[in-house]
Amino acid sequence: SDIRPNLRKFIYEQCLINGEWRSADSGKTIAVTNPATQEVIAHVPNCGATETEHAIQAAATALPAWRQKTAAERAQVLKRWHALVMENQQALGELMTLEQGKPVAEAKGEIAYAASYIEWFAEEARRSYGETIPGLTASQRIIVTREPVGVCAAITPWNFPAAMITRKVAPALAVGCTIVVKPASETPLTALALAALAQEAGVPNGVFSVVTGDAKTIGEAFTSSELVRKISFTGSTAVGATLMAASAPTLKRISLELGGNAPFIVFDDADLDKAAQGLIDSKFRNAGQTCVCANRVYVQRSIADAFTQKLLEKVRALNVGNGFDDGVTIGPLISEKAVEKVEKHIADAKQHGAEVVYGGARHELGGTWFQPTVLSNGTPDMLCTKEETFGPVVPLIPFDSEEEALGYANASEFGLAAYFYARDAGRIRRVAEGIEAGMVGVNTGLISNATAPFGGVKASGMGREGGHQGLDEYTELKYVCIDV
Ligand code: ADP
Question: Catalytic center at which residues (predicted)?
Fold first, then answer.
């Protein structure tokens, strides 16, 4: 078993609602499994509407006192939470590997990344500035302030079990909101452990609750509630659209961080070594299961062979295995369904004439492990250019001109991340400005960090997380006109 003794105290099998650990009223539970071994690690409550409404009510009750604290007081609590998360980085990382599968080193990296949002928003809490505007008459003053939106609800996915939570909870708490989180049923343990540490750090009862259980029921309890003023969701476009529609009758604020389909373009003037490394960074993190992973790779024809060779050298060095084993860089995919999608995309690419130059099939380890895969001579109408593969597959597609590459990049309903490698200054400006995406990496494959606004356009959603902009999602402007 991978359940090491040091992890037991971080495994919570109850929900944290209003500062109390509790089971589902029905007594029902959901099993949490290790995707590497299929071993059942724990059971979490299968809560429904009643428990969710209880958490929402508690968040509403806790709101007045929390929002009245000074920004500095709330920042102190967040800083203590940040410190506790970092003190327990090793155990939290291992817990994440246990339920999600990513290698321990990568999981520890995500814990530090998740903690960086807590630290960032603890700092930004004190900088939620307003403004004053000259009045229309001599005695008039126009004052604009920021107030917390109120009770918030968040629904998060399994691919980043820690960071997707802190990115929403930290800014909410920083500005004086209270929040109820429903984590993905695949990875609730990291969420519950984070909530336990928040409680230890001094987050008051009801300010941050975690409810596990049936996604649809809990989602409906959130969207139908008059008390919930904002919903923040990270996940699929289909579910995001459902939540948006369901939030319409009560006119909630919404932030949606949805699917991506990132283009990655390598131009003939690029530093090919750097581009190959950037592609590895962007593509294979979390075994290809991130919404900003390069999904379709366009390579200028004159350098396609040279680039492919450099890429293959690096792909050969990737090491597939159990995330707890030393040197492993690619863990299992989250589920059998995920493996089937990858297989479908590869089969479709082959039908379009693409050649498998590396991998292309399930890994000999069995389970949900998949070989890192490189396909060459792809076409711009393959399935994997239209939807997220969410697996370790690099489809290389040749192109001739800059205009053609930009056309391919923008021929997608999605617009989250995009990457390109080039040296020509004019080309860098033209492509960075021409590409339809919320985030563009130029000569880098890593763009996510707490200091910058993360988010997408088109079917990739709306709203931004991180940066000082991440606070705005949780505040309302109030304008006061004083005539004295
Ligand atoms: P993914 O492909 O990442 O699983 P989902 O959108 O299905 O994408 O899941 C993201 C989050 O949304 C998870 O917490 C999941 O439980 C939740 N979810 C799934 N379906 C619904 C729904 N109908 N209403 C509310 N939340 C949902």
Answer: 257
Answer yes or no: are the C-beta atoms of 56 and 221 closer than 8 Å. Answer: yes
Provide the b/e sequence for 198-215 (b: ≥16 CB within 10 Å): bbebebeebbbbbbbbbe
Q: How confident is residue 430, by pLDDT bands cut at 50, 70 and 90?
A: very high
Q: Which residue's CA lies nearest to atom 23 of ligand 1?
A: 216
| Residue 372 near residue 362, CB atoms below 8 Å | no
The dihedral over CA atoms of 463, 467, 473, 476, expressed in degrees to the nearest 10, equals -140
220 Cα–ligand 1 center, Å:
12
Three-state secondary-structure class, residue 261:
coil
Rounded Cα gap, residues 227 and 224, in angstroms: 9
Which amino acid residue places its CA nearest to atom 17 of ligand 1?
215
**What's the 57 CA to ligand 1 centre distance in angstroms?**
23
Band of pLDDT at residue 43, cut at 50, 70 and 90: very high
State the Cα–Cα distance between residues 146 and 336, nearest whole angstrom: 46
Q: What is the pTM of this model?
A: 0.98
In this structure, which residue's CA is closest to atom 11 in ligand 1?
Answer: 157
Question: d(Cα 61, Cα 72) in Å, to the nearest integer?
Answer: 22
What's the token pair of residue 395? 């489809």
Ligand 1 centre to CA of 188 (Å) is 13
| Residue whose pair of structure tokens reads 């939807």 in the numeric block | 387
ipTM exceeding the 0.90 mark = yes
Residue that is written with structure tokens 């802190």 in the block: 166
Residue positions annotated with a catalytic role: 257
